[in-house]
């Protein structure tokens, strides 16, 4: 494996934890890996004050992480000791570390949960939606890195067996493609000439064709435009300005997309669209 092109999984996880702490200012970030028996092990961390949670094994369905794996959705508690949405097998370890609020988000690669990304604070501070969105976006980036690593390992296996393999793009190159795709959709939206706009939209489709899977969910051009804006980090107001429509209309498109894709947040919708090949 080319180390300059591809981080191994441990490096990707450590980078995700560090960048998440920097982006949110949250003191504790952790990653728990899913083991063969479906239990979790907290295998990487930043900011822990004690060894209480280091290498902790978490049984299936237990605590925040176990519930994340069971539901395959983010789970957050603002007061761990009193939370009624989780079980409390690990209260003593949490209390020894002194954590108060915790959020856990699943990291899913090829429909398989690879682990749980956590953030936590030692004081009675509620972790708001912005923090949860940031954790979710970091999890999505980590998913891409792990998927690329997996593809690279398969690629190396083919080469080792005497086969030919093409170059796998790294995370930065994928982000450039994604940004270009989103900007191209925005450009197409501004073009008044129907034929030229169709050509631009066809180019957008060609950018995702290599990874497209059979779509059972059809998204309209406007819905894809909204998702492209969200993928660039635009707010609803910024997307409305970019697309030349009202913010309420953007919300309406976004609600429709989330309903079609079964997503609960705007960023889950972007990730779901990428999974079906609607976005790169």
Automatic annotation (TrEMBL):
The keyword DNA-binding applies. Keywords: DNA-binding, Transcription, Transcription regulation. It comes from the Bacteria. GO terms for molecular function: DNA binding. Pfam families: GAF (PF01590), GerE (PF00196). One of its GO terms (biological process) is regulation of DNA-templated transcription. CDD domains: LuxR_C_like. The keyword Transport does not apply. InterPro entries: GAF, GAF-like_dom_sf, HTH-type_RamA-like, Sig_transdc_resp-reg_C-effctor, Tscrpt_reg_LuxR_C, WH-like_DNA-bd_sf. Residues 212-277 form the HTH luxR-type domain. NCBIfam families: transregRamA. This is GAF domain-containing protein. It comes from Corynebacterium mendelii.
């Amino acid at each position: 494996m080319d180390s300059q092109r591809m981080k191994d999984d441990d490096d990707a996880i450590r980078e995700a934890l560090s960048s998440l702490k920097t982006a949110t200012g949250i003191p504790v970030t952790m990653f728990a890996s899913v083991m063969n028996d479906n239990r979790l092990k907290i295998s990487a961390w930043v900011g822990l004050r004690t060894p209480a949670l280091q290498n902790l094994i978490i049984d299936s369905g237990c605590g925040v992480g176990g519930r994340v794996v069971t539901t395959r959705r983010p789970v957050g508690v603002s007061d761990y000791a009193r939370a009624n949405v989780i079980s409390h097998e690990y209260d003593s370890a949490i209390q020894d570390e002194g954590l108060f609020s915790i959020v856990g988000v699943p990291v899913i690669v090829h429909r398989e949960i690879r682990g749980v990304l956590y953030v936590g604070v030692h004081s009675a501070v509620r972790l708001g939606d912005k923090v949860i969105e940031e954790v979710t976006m970091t999890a999505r980036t980590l998913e891409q890195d792990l998927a690329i690593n997996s593809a690279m390992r398969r690629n190396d296996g083919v080469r080792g067996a005497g086969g030919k393999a093409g170059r796998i793009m790294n995370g930065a190159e994928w982000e450039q493609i994604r940004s270009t795709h989103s900007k191209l959709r925005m450009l197409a939206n501004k073009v008044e000439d129907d034929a030229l706009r169709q050509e631009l939209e066809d180019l957008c489709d060609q950018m995702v064709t290599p990874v497209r899977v059979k779509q059972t969910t059809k998204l309209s051009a406007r819905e894809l435009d909204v998702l492209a804006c969200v993928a660039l980090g635009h707010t609803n107001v910024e997307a409305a300005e970019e697309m030349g429509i009202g913010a309420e209309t953007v919300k309406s498109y976004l609600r429709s997309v989330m309903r079609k894709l079964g997503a609960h947040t705007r960023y889950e919708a972007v990730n779901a669209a990428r999974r079906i090949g609607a976005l790169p």
